[in-house]
Amino acid sequence: MAQVTPEVLWAQRSSSTDPEKNFIYLTISVPDVPKENLKLDLKPTSLTFQGHSETLKRTYHLDLTFFGEIDPENSKTHHTARNVELKLRKKELKEEYWPRLLKEAAKVQFLKTDFDKWVDEDEQNEAPEDDFSQFGGGMGGMPGMGGMGGMGGMGGMGGDFGGIDFSKLGAAPGDAGSDDEEDDDDDEMPALEDEADAKPDATKADK
Fold first, then answer.
1. Mean local confidence (pLDDT), 46-73
2. 134: phi > 0 → left, psi -120 to 50 → alpha, else beta; which?
3. Which residues is 49 bridged to in the sheet?
4. What DSSP character marks residue 94?
5. E strands along the chain, which residues?
6. What is the DSSP string of 142-184?
């Protein structure tokens, strides 16, 4: 059975005064992995994820060692039908962004910038407030965490995790991008046709 490294998207915010605005945002792309089939182990300097999809016959495995320390107790998760989203609070309050997500500077193919959520460091104050209302409790609520306190609460939220709203949440950013690209293409086509029509007229004019 195939074991693959899932695609990971990341963005960040920073603050020297407000812990709520000093975090890393991760999206681990693991479609069709139900919450009972995933295990997430978050530590101050690392993250280990494993999940299995019965429908895709695929096991996902991910190991990350962070550039700096995070605060697991004040970090949050959100599970959808398509991915696992994490809001990881940075331990050190600091105005400057992390220069990269991982401790090692080497480029890895599975890690990409989440441009839908990324805001440049000097534009954070002008950016709209991030909506993290979909996030549940802390990391203790994730399955596979060794029976930590949040397990019961997680079970009670099972109906929400399986609901259609999460499908829409997961699809919205990608769909929006596709529509924009299609609209751009449509806008350009008439202009090309107009240019093509204009060339014969110009030739006649010369004659």
1. 95
2. alpha
3. 40, 62
4. B
5. 2-4, 8-13, 23-29, 38-43, 46-53, 58-65, 70-79, 83-90, 111-113
6. STTSSS-TTHHHHHHTHHHHTSHHHHHHHHHHHHHHHHHHHHH
Residue 71 tokens read as: 């605060």
- Closest to 115 measured CA to CA, from 4, 8, 10, 205: 10
Query: What CA–CA distance (Å, rounded) separates 207 from 198?
Result: 15
| 8 A C-beta contact, residue 135 and residue 86 | no
CA dihedral sign of residues 174, 64, 150, 50 = positive
Report the distance separating Cα 6 and Cα 30, nearest Å: 6
Cα distance from N-terminal residue to C-terminal residue, the chain: 72
Buried b (16+ CB within 10 A) or exposed e, 142-160: bbbbeeeebeeebeeeeee
pLDDT tens readout for residues 93-122 = 999 999 999 999 999 999 999 999 988 887
Whole-structure pTM value:
0.63
